[in-house]
Structure formats: structure tokens, C-alpha cells
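User: Structure please.
Assistant: Input sequence and predicted structure:
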Amino acid sequence: MSDQTIMFIHALTGLHPGGGTALGVIDLPIQRERHTNWPTIPGSSLKGVFRSSFKGASEENNEEELTLFGPETSSNEDYAGALNFSDARILAFPVRSLSGVFAWVTCPDVLYRLQRDLGIINGGSVPTIPAPDRDHAYCSERSPLVSDDKMILEEFEFSVKRCPSDLAEWLAPRVTSDEHTAERIKSHLAVLNNDDFTFFVQNATEVNARIGLDYRTKTVKKSALFYEEYLPAETILYSLVICQHSHRSDYKASGKELLETFQSRLLPYIQIGGGETIGKGICGIQFSNRF
């Protein structure tokens, strides 16, 4: 028997899930889906990150780790790990706002895909999904993002239709356990047209210049300047986590037991992606079985 859940990833600092193809001035772009150009984190990267975190939570080289994640590469033909991660998909993207500081923007296609993914794990459905036209937005009736029925995101103006906050109310407690953040999501979530959302996730990421210094002269090394792309802090993604029963002949456990073990051994925060030594990639993790 297998068990499954959905895992929400909330970036608390800039996040660099690297591996994208450098086609322009950005030397180290983030990973993106080929067909949508939306940000993503490969499931293989998540598995490596969580294996490292799970191992670091205990001094012992225990049987549970090997059962969940599989044996070392030299013995990978012995059995498969029980734990499976889907690629992390974008759910909400932070965009600077003239009022209310910033908005979390999403779009119908993102929400319909979340609803389809919830069906995979028998997780219910997303509340009513609005469908705004280009240059229009839906947001909560009490949203501080709106002034005179207009929302200004970056330099773009959106006509606003206020609607009941069923979607934001449903989403907030599942995404984070932090009460302040959950309350902010309820009032700062905005649903944009698919094309408007795609524009922001393509063009409103952070791009930082990085340099290497010569230790002796304290000057920039030759050809040491490079540009690195980050998902901004407050980005929200999600991944499906499916845990099968143990594939080992000498260690029996159900998927439910192993998934509970995995969740209980993790800290609520984890580091994902590049830039660990400069404080990048610190993320809040929330598992949700409440649908």
C-alpha cells in the first residue's frame, strides 16, 4: 500500500533552483518548464535535498533512510527507495505592488493544474477558480492591494473585480503554519490572466551580479563577474509526495508508516538550491493532508 500527501514550499529567502539553459545575459538561470517557461524544481533535486536533511537529523545510518531513499549508488540494483517526489510546481509568485507592498499572483491554469494534481492523491478540489481577462485581476473583498478599483503591479495597471475570498481562505492554512503569513495570503492573493501571470514569472525574478575577489589584492578576479537568477523570497511552490511500501526483503513497512517517519524526522525549514553559504534557498515546508 502507498500513501501520499502534498508538500508546499515557501521560499523565505531568494531561491536558485539552477540548471536552466543560459541563452542571454544571465549566466546561471533558474530551472523552468520547457512548455510553459514557469519556474520549477526537479523532483530529483528535492529527493537529494531531503535525503541529506533526513540523514543529518540523526547520527545513525539507520534502516529507515535506506528504505525511504534507496541504497547508495554502488548498490542501487538491490531495491528502490519507497519515497517519490514530483517536480515542484509554481503556485503563487510575489510581485511588487503600489498598494499593500506586494501581491501573491497566480492564474487559472496554475490552479486547475493544482486541482488535477490533488485528484492524483485523492485530495479533493480547489474552490471556485476565477477566470480574469487580460489586464484584469480578481482579489479578496478586503484586499489592501486595490485603490480606486485598480491594482498596480510593477508598472502595470489592472482593473480589479473583488470576489469572496474562498480560494485564499482555503489555500492559506495549507501553504504555511505561520499565522501572520497565512493571514497575509488571505488578503494579498490575486488571480491574473494566464498570460499576465506568465509575463511576471518570466520577467520579475531577481537577477544578482556576483563577483570573485582576489584574496591578496582584494580586487575582482579577471572574468569573475557573473549574473545569477533567483526566485524572489515569498515564492510558493508545491510537490506531490508519494510513499510506497518498503521494497526491501529484510525491512517491512507500509507506505503510511514510512511517510509518517519521513515527516516526523524533518525540520520545518530546509535549504534548497544554490547559494547555501550566502543565505539563499531557505524554505518553509508544510505537508497538508487537509482537503
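The longest helix spans residues 43-56.
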